[in-house]
Amino acid sequence: MVKTEYQAIKERIADEVVAASNRSGYNVTKEEAAASISFAEKYSDISSTIAMKLAKAHSKAPSDIGNEIIRNTKAISSVERVSFENGFINFHLERNIFFSGVLDEVTKRGWADEKGAKRAKVIAEYPSINPAHPLHIGHVRSALLGDSISNILETTGYEVEREDYIDDLGLQAAEALWGVMNMERIGITFNPSKKYDHMLGEIYVTVNQKIKADQSVMDEVKKTSELMEQSGTYESKLLQDMVESFLKAEYDTLFKMGIFHNVMVWESAILANKLLEKAIENLDKEHITERPKEGKYAGCIIIDIKKLKGAPESMTGLQETTKVLVRSNGTPGYFSKDLAFHMWKFGLIRTQMRFKKFIEQPNGSPVYSTAKDGEPMEFGGAETAINPIDSRQSYEQDLVGLIIGNMAKKARFVHIPYGTVDLEGGVLSGRKGSWIGFTADDLISEAVAKARELVSPRDEISEKERERIADAVAMAAIRFEFLKISYEKKIVFSWERALNFEGNSGPYCQYMYTRANRIVASVKEAPIIAENYKISDTEFDLIKKIAAYWEQVSKASEEMKPHILAAYLNELCALFGKFYEAKQVSKADTAEERRARLGIVIAFREVAGLIMDLLGIKRLEAM
Known about the structure:
With about 625 residues, the chain is of the alpha/beta class. It is about 50% helix and about 15% strand. The protein has an 8-stranded mixed sheet with strand order 13-11-12-7-6-5-14-15, with helices on both faces.
């Protein structure tokens, strides 16, 4: 893997920290030295905490050890001098040489060189909502997390398969189907002008109200559920049409958010391909399942969680530690089908499901779907599976991961347990219909309306271009506001924050990128960093932040946390704002100054653009 300028200099400094420490009589490993080094906020450019670490082990003052190591430090390429202050060994860089390397790196190598060799395959599943109501803003969080994590993993070398799970055989689907079959009875008229997923959602909510008022409706729904699972019935054919129409409407919303997939796996395909039976066979072989002949679970297929290797106390200490996979009447639970699906994801179930093209996406790639009349394709078989799912489902997700881990040591199951998106009406519920007025489409429409008010009409751009800019600003506002918060935390969405052009928002970052782009377009010269150009502290603070880009991308990839990049992008833009105010390219006194500052602007633009791409924020050449 190609080293960045920052990684290369850190490595040189770490090597010399080890050598100088050994010369001073201290035993320091390369790993310890590397872990002690970071960009410094004060006193220097790069600092090491190794003196403080050694002081504890040798009962000496950090200053004594630090100065001793400094006396034994030899010249390091790109380091001008070394000093000690407040417990840190400080390395002061030769600014012009360092920045020349950074500028060359971000403008000439291209990001592809940084990816290195391809890594293992990852399956990311999102948003996987039930085909009974439209995406609400809670689902937006799942979709944006899944999409941005996939972007980040791909950029760091992973092969990512983006999947969407379609629960077309659940109770919610049966309730929606019964409602479609009985629209006149429940008082709903088909409206072809209404978005299909919204109309289906209204039908679903109304059916639930009918069930509460008349229990016989549930009996009819259960009968519908039985018939829709039987091949060739009227109900099964209508279900297929209903779900396909729903998905096309749902994907229209996802496309607006810039979210695309590779494949959709339907629950009906899991049953048709007997994944559940094969899953049970594999679990039996691993002695994970049990079949009690008496007692509460007589006739069931169960898993005793206490007997699983590595089961945490949070699971084994519960009053109920038995998980039923198949009930005594032979019906599987939702968990068992989900487990079978994940076993397929990891290649633990060997079966050739068939797929065919469902629709062509706006990004030019097709999304495939499981289908009886399809062809075998190479989907599934990953080493890592990622699920961004509401933290309220953590127990089931953790249990899936535990069982998979008992079957395959190398399999890595990652649950991204995101916090809820709170609204004035409380926690969202699809069954109660509290999402009405708070769907993803409502969020997007309001964002676009507000953005169009902010993007004023100008003579130099057409109305069509103004609308395009406003649409991009709207989605930047939504994406950044959702992604800047660590996924474990709850979100209370704020328009004031999301559309703030002063800082810590998607539109703010877009504006700073656009400002840099305008500067580059206006200067018809090549950037040059002359040896005698004096780089100021304001400039070098920005340069150091630019140089740390790959470290931040790598960290976000390892931890699967997009908010790391959102924070980095905001800090980068804030430093660029300070640079712009203090060192404007157009106000440079000499050509040398102008071309040096231009190089800083170009480096900022390239790195900011990369991070925006990973977060799904559109670059705007003009605003």
